[in-house]
Amino acid sequence: MNDKKMAAPTPPMGWNSWDCYMSAVTEEQILGNARYMADHLKRFGWEYIVCDIQWYEPLAGTVPGCEYIPFAQLSMDSYGRLMPAVNRFPSAAGGKGFALLADQVHAMGLKFGIHIMRGIPRQAAHARCPVLGTEVTADRIANPFSICKWNSDMYGLLDVPGAQEYYKSLFNLYADWGVDYVKVDDIANTNLYPSNPYSAGREIEMIRHAIDQCGRSMVLSLSPGPAVIEKAWHLRENAQMWRITDDFWDDWKALKAMFERCEVWQSHVGKGCWPDCDMLPLGRIGIAFGKDRRTRLTPDEQQTMVTLWSIFRSPLMLGGELRDTDQATLALITNPEVIRINQHAHSARQIRRDDREAVWMSNDPDGGRYLALFNLSDEERVVSADLPLGTWPR
């Protein structure tokens, strides 16, 4: 348990490729954003560079308006493990996987992460690929009745001999590549099955075990949300991050709804355990598939978002193209006092909330106290808090 907590003793801070490049991100884009982070953000605590979904799909981004090509042919090794598509990630040629890309990110003083879907590729199951180190084939461990609602790449895994060994083979490979962070999708809430949204709980345990034995510390991030609050104990035992919402985009109504989600999860925030409000859709986003735009959040709404994420102590993952960051956004994400609250404050609580306003408090480790006042209405108004000393969190 202590080792798991040490993988993320504070909320991870970084950049994820999804909000701007979705499934179509390339090696050049990953490295370009990494260089910007190293030059402009690293000294403020930003350190993770995460390559999101379908890095193994050679044709991703080639079909206009199509995030996912149904039943696409995926890049895969003989053991049914997905490999980076070399036309998008040329350093992966020759079976090197992400090792050389991770080396370049590490050389900048940063950490490297990837996104995966839970389970095993359908393609591996249909081809009856062997599971490394066993006499079991992929079709014996694949569960064709456990699939993702929005992506056709994978089958879930059965709890049978060979399934744990498959996950071990994955994370041993990722350790060899030098991966520091793994975002696993279609697992925190298997939303195709609303009567059993935590149907992948056993797979979470398999992944935890696979990380623990791989010899490399990795942050485990679980998506999508909303995570199941009744399973908070299980999430704390197995992961460092879990999404408390479905995909969050640049929408004021969605931002207002996050206050209730944070209230529900506030007592589960602590060392090595970070309920996740999702990426920060700041700057230039939606670049892939003809959706290129600047964030729709107003400057005030952006400040509200960053403040809530920070006092709640959500992980901070930037979603925009970093190389197009304007000065106002740069000032917002490099505010040292706000970053200190996110990284080091504790015991955050929502003191009150209604349709018009919300008030949050937290403690600084040096004895100071923080108060965050939010105007949730659609007009200018004064928000104040006159609270007796006994209401401050301890």
Walk me through the structure:
This protein is α/β, with parallel strands linked by helices and 394 residues long. 31% of the residues lie in helices and 17% in strands. It is built from 13 helices and 16 strands. It has helices spanning 2-6, 18-21, 27-41, 99-107, 122-127, 138-141, 163-177, 201-213, 232-238, 252-265, 299-312, 327-333, 336-344; strands spanning 13-16, 48-51, 111-117, 120-121, 142-143, 154-157, 181-185, 219-222, 241-243, 274-276, 284-285, 293-294, 316-318, 346-353, 357-363, 369-375. The chain has an eight-stranded parallel β-sheet. A three-stranded antiparallel β-sheet has the order 4-6-5. The chain has a three-stranded antiparallel β-sheet with strand order 14-15-16, with helices on one face. Helix 8 links the parallel strand 7 (181-185) and strand 8. Helix 7 (163-177) packs across helix 8 (201-213). The two termini are 25 Å apart. The model has no long low-confidence stretch (mean pLDDT 95).
